[in-house]
Amino acid sequence: MDQISSFITNYMPFLLNADRYKVVETMETAANGGDSVVVFVSDGLHFRFIKERDQLFLDLRPPTSQKEKDWYSIDLVYRLLTGERLGTSILSPEYAEFVRTRLLDIERKFGPDEWPQTEQDLRGIQRKRSKEMFG
């Protein structure tokens, strides 16, 4: 959990605004050297940070959904909004800066008015990424 906390403190401190974001789930296991999960929620977006095998990942989900399938990795969201592929889903300072600077755009895409189209677009990007990775 320390790795997630450190990353958030250094690169995404806006999530520490208790008036806007709440931690609703934390989990830590001894598996793979200490995997962990932290979920932040706001009225506009849900953030799930995952530490797995000493690598960090970030998934986003609309606040209106509780479905597991509605979590989308940051690389897919980045590609949706920029049209660019960074080639990795591992959370980086570049992805953190993207979230910080494009948060309102992301929240709009994950909001109730745009979510149906956003979901279709993200699923298409997922399929495209799978073909790029596995042929």
TrEMBL record:
In what ranges is there compositional bias, type Basic residues? 125-135
Q: Which domain of life is it from?
A: Bacteria
Region described as Disordered = 115-135
Provide the protein name: UDP-N-acetylmuramyl tripeptide synthase
Q: What organism is listed for this UniProt entry? A: Microbacterium testaceum (strain StLB037)
Lineage at the top is: Bacteria, Bacillati, Actinomycetota, Actinomycetes, Micrococcales
